[in-house]
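Recap from last week: sequence in, structure out.
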Amino acid sequence: MSESSPFKPFGLTQVYVPRDGAPTVDIVFVHGLNGHPHDSWTSKSTNCYWPVDLLPDVLAPLRPRILTYGYNANVTAFTDGASRDSIVSHAETLASNLAANRNLRSCSDRPIIFVCHSLGGLVVKRALIYSRSLSNEKTEHLRSVYVSTFGILFLGTPHNGSDIAKWGLLLHNICSAVMPKKFMEASPQLVKALRTNNETLQHINSLFADIMSRFHIYLFHETRSTDVRGTREIIVDEASAAPYLEGVERMGIEADHSHMCKFDDENAAGYEVVAEAILRYSRQAPMVIADRWVEEKKARTLEKQHKAREIYDGKPDIPTILFYFGY
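Predicted structure tokens:
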């Protein structure tokens, strides 16, 4: 798909769908700070948009559907916890968009694999936390994102960062890496905003820790430094991007923070490992997610039965109650 293709700046864009047969997995790309649903994944030297130009060939037998998510990824989205453009709002919008997209196509139980760059990983983590929390039958359709997610590839996402001072420095360095120097020099208020006490950022990682073991996860860290204000720095260091965790894969990509998610061609550093992980997850996901949906539906049925008993306090009898609730 070329740059002239109709990429939505906000929301989901379906960039690839198999011609023969129904898809077996949805792969969703989520960019980071100051990112774009096309440009963030496109090589500047070869114009290779690897989610479409390379990945479908690897995954062809599995018939993937590939989507890219765009959102207003300016600095405020990650620094202003009080703003309705906050990371929580972006996460809720991602979950709602994805659930709606899949419900309209009658595929809410199809496996999901997320590929996210930098702070986009925080949006994905928060979206899964949000989706998991929705147990009310009026909103349980949004819970489908949590139930269906099998794997996540995090490219340069900071996983250790609850310290406010360190978050401020980290976010400042990411801004310096992805935004024009002139903008940084002309925006002293940005530095102040980055040091704002932000409970959202503090708690995302601790909340995600409760559900992390449910997913297959691959952590990628950058190995090349970025020019930040005349000095070379690793933007998200290995300890933060790829901590050693039981059952979690990790690897370094020979690129800087901005280019670790862009591949010139199939021979580019890191591409084969990323592609193989997506392929492996796509093969494993259908059976696992099918079993999870069986358990999810059982749990929902039991919950409705329990509520029916509470509401009617044994009157009328249970068969009548179940008939009232549509069973």
